Amino acid sequence: MQSVWQSHHQRFLPTFGFCFQQLTTLNLSANRISSLPSELIHCSQLQSVDISINSFVVFPTILLEIESITDIKAKNNFIADVDDEALEQHANLELVNLEENPLDQPTHARLSRVEGLRIVLTDRRVQEWEDLSC
Fold it and tell me: Across the chain, which distance is largest between two alpha carbons, in Å?
């Protein structure tokens, strides 16, 4: 099944942005993806994106290049670091959900202090490798 998705994915995505310029909501949750195509920038009406329950290790900054984006759901991925300044500088962004991501301590702290938009975070647990007091 994964190879079928990958071959379909490769044929479909290059024209994605051009075909769906009027798209306002995009739900890509639970699809085992780890990146988004740069063509997504052409979805100039896109307001809400859900990339939850996937394999992202890096927050997809292409979403911040879309001016119309108001909310991004990126729960339950593998994201450890997010550019808080880029989030704050986005003119229309209202909500970013980063629950259940292994955010590192400095990133979690910076995101907790962001003002002007709502960032949903899971309470941070100290990882075993971080607790070297033993």
Answer: 56
Distance CA 81, CA 8 (A): 30
Helix (H, G, I), strand (E, B) or coil at 99: coil
Q: Which residues contact 118 (CB under 8 A, 6 or more apart)?
A: 94, 95, 96
- Closest by CA position to 83, among listed 55, 111, 119: 111
The pLDDT tens digits for 7-19 are: 444 455 555 556 6
pLDDT in tens, 66-98: 999 999 999 999 999 999 999 999 999 999 999
How far apart, in whole angstroms, are the C-alpha atoms of residue 59 and residue 78?
9
Alpha-carbon span 22 to 50, nearest angstrom: 17
Q: What is the pTM of this model?
A: 0.81
DSSP secondary structure, 10-59, as one string = HHHGGGHHHHTTT--EEE--SS------GGGGG-TT--EEE--SS--SS-
> What element of type H or E holds 82?
none
Amino acid code (one letter) for 30: A
Helices of type H across 51-103: 84-89
